[in-house]
Amino acid sequence: MENNGLRDIISIVMLLWSKRKRLIINVFIGGLLSIIVAYSIPKEYTSTVVLAPEFSSGMSMSGSISSLASMAGIDLGSGSEDALYPELYPQIVSSVPFLCELLETEVAAKYKRDTINVTLYEYIKEYQRDPWWISIIGAPGKMIQKMKNNLSVDSVLPSVKNNNYILSRRQQLVMRSLNEKIGVNVDKGTSVITLSVTMQDPHVAAKMTQVVSDKLQEYIKDYRTAKAKSDYEQTERIFSESQSKYLKAKQAYAEYYDKHQNITKMQYQIEMDRLQNEQEVAFNVYNQLAQQLEITRSKLLESTPVVVVVEPPILPYKASSPKKMMMGLLYVFLAFFGTAFWIILKDRIIDK
C-alpha cells in the first residue's frame, strides 16, 4: 500500500514536470493579473486612535459629599448601574444618527491636483475612485442615477436636521459605505477602544478618525451625565426661586421695621413677628437649597467620565490597501494549484 501511494505521488510529480511549461506560463499570467488588479484598485489609508474610557459598574459619591448631603437632610442614594457598556460602542458608531452627523463634516481632500472643500457625504458620493472594471459595469447605472439627480435634490442634511432620517437609496448606499470604512474594536479585558477610519485620502482619514473619536467621547459624556445634569438644572431652578422669595421676604421685613420701629402697639408687633418668621423660613429653605445645589454640582463633576487618548490619530503615509504582495502570492498560488489540479484531473479522469 505504501509503495502504491509513493508510486502515485511520483507519477503525479512526473506528470506535472512534463507539463512544466504550461504551469510556468499560467503562473506568469497569474502574477501579471495580480499586478494589473493591484494597481487598478485605488489606494486606501487607515488612521487609528486608541481610547481608554473610565468605566465603572456604578456611580458612587465620595465620603465628604455623602456626609454633607446627610447634614442637609438629602438622600443621594448609592447610585445606579451604568447601562452603557463598551461592547455597545460599535453599535453606537454604526447607528443612523451617528453616521448622519459624520456625513455633515467638512473635509479637505485632494482631487487630481486640486484641494476641494466638501462635506464627507459629497466626498464619498462624488470623489471616491473605483477600479476600472466597476466603472465599466456601473456606467449605465450611473447615467440613470445622474438623470434622476438632475430632477431631484439628493441631500442628507435636511433629513438629519429634521430628525426624520428618511433617506433615499443613494443616501443609504453612502451611509453603508461610510459604515464599512469605520472600525471599532473593544478589548473586553481592558475596555480599551481602538477606532480606525479608512479613506482614499490620508488627510480625510486622519480628520475623520479625530471626528469619530470626539463624537463618541461626547456621546459617552452626555449619557453618563444625563441624570446628574438634569438634577443639577432642576435644583438650580428651585434655588433661584427660593432666593427670590427670600430676598422679597427680607425686603418686606426691613421696610416694615423702618416704618414702625418706634411704635409699641401690639398689632404692629404681631405683624413684625410674622414678617420676621417668613424671612427666617425663606432663609432656611434658601440655605438648604444652596447646600443641595453644591452637592448636585459635585455629583455632576464626579459623574463626568474621563476618556484618556492613549494614541492620537496621525496622518498615514503608507497605504493600508491594496496589499500588493499578498495579492501577488494569492494569484500565483491559485494559478499554480488550479493548473496542477486541471492537469491531474484531465490525465486521470477525462482522458480515461
Could you list some keywords that capture this structure?
2 domains, four-stranded antiparallel beta sheet, two-stranded antiparallel sheet, 352 residues, alpha+beta
Describe this structure in words.
Helices cover 65% and strands 11% of the residues. It is an alpha+beta fold. The chain has two domains: 1-41 and 323-352, no CATH class; 42-321. The strands form two sheets. The chain has a four-stranded antiparallel β-sheet with strand order 4-5-1-6. It has a two-stranded antiparallel ribbon with strand order 2-3. The protein is elongated and about 130 Å long. The relative contact order is 0.17.
Give a summary of the structure in a few sentences.
The chain has 352 residues and is of the alpha+beta class. It contains 13 helices and 6 strands.
